[in-house]
Amino acid sequence: MQKILNQKHSKETFLYTIMNTLERASYYGIRALFVIYMIGETLKMEHAKAFEVYGIFFISIIFSKIIGAVVGDLFIGNKKAIIIGGLIQALGAFSLCNPSIYGLYSGLFLISIGSGFFTTNLHSNFGKLYLEKLQLSDAGFTILYLSSNLGSFFGILLLGYLGEKYGYSIGFLATGFLTLLSIAPLLFIKEKSIHDKIIDNKISFKKRLQTIFITFSVVGLFWLFYELASVRNSDLIFQFSEISALNISRYLWNSLSAIFILPISLIAILLWTFFYINQISKLTLGLLFAILSLGILLFIPEIPLKEHVYIYIGSLLLFSISEILIAPVVQSTLTKYGNPKYLAILMSIISLPVRLFTFLLIPFKEELDNSIQLSFNVGLTGIIILTLGFISYTYFNSRKPKQTI
């Protein structure tokens, strides 16, 4: 651990954070509303069709991020891409106010394109703030990650309430204005020009490529295995919510992890603002906390009792620590080792590895879907093997002269 001297977060950090919070509140507010809207009295869509539309929308976001990043990095600049994305996303939210299938599909299409343009280019510009103070980048991206969680939490809470209380059109209208509001802080931010001289030429291209590949692979496999193991979490939430003695709604159960994220993020931000801990250490600790989080679930029987709720809450707390140790590291690693001229493009492919690794499980999909315990065991075992492999890799690599990440 090394003390960080004479470095601090800039006002632009907090302006971008405000933008991200507002846009994420709008985006997740829309996600909370439109499935219920589709199957409601207005459109009366069948449940299967509604979830199919939701799945297509979710996948389209992945590709729209890549398109938005390419346009921002190579053609119009990241700042203009953010503005255009915000305007398109707001237009999509307003289109949803038209109570028809046409309004639904055109609205979701525009929101997908707009969100893709907005998020990756914002993250790219945010990362560029730390090119000359890389030791602060983990703390910076933790601030941004916290803002995403706060935005999604309050967006679902507030916009969901508006939609249910005053009608879906009011909810969608509010999300549109919230997206427009998210662009406003950009007026106070001057975009810095990026030159090749910013890249640390002491690190070879091969080393940069290797570090980015390893980080993508480790984090991609981690989230893949965790998704497999998390079916146990979903099952426990359902069973705990059915225990009347606990008197806790299923909504609150689903929000517990978000509640833990706030204090843990604040502690991490303060710690990493004043002390530098290298990214390998953070990733390793994050993987170990994830193993502990899933491991203690083994002490909860298949049919849990109310006294087992404390074990489950402990598991959520440990995973929240793991998440904060792992999630921001990918973006800060790309900021350090990537070419800043193409940073948005790199940011846009963060979620691709886990989707690509998912194809490896297709032959076993039926067995995993039919057994919660099997899926959990595969997920936990996968994270254990991944952690041991990563520790072994970093140990043997540390014996060679090299740059640490």
TrEMBL record:
Transmembrane segments: 21-39, 51-75, 82-102, 108-131, 143-162, 168-189, 209-226, 251-276, 283-303, 309-330, 342-362, 374-396
Signal peptide start-end: none
Chief localisation class: membrane
PROSITE patterns according to UniProt: PTR2_1
Protein localization: Cell membrane
Membrane-topology descriptor: Multi-pass membrane protein
SUPFAM superfamilies: MFS general substrate transporter
Annotated Gene3D superfamilies: MFS general substrate transporter like domains (1.20.1250.20)
UniProtKB keywords: Cell membrane, Membrane, Transmembrane, Transmembrane helix, Transport
PANTHER family in UniProt: PROTON-DEPENDENT OLIGOPEPTIDE FAMILY TRANSPORT PROTEIN (PTHR23517:SF15), RESISTANCE PROTEIN MDTM, PUTATIVE-RELATED-RELATED (PTHR23517)
Protein name, entry field: MFS domain-containing protein
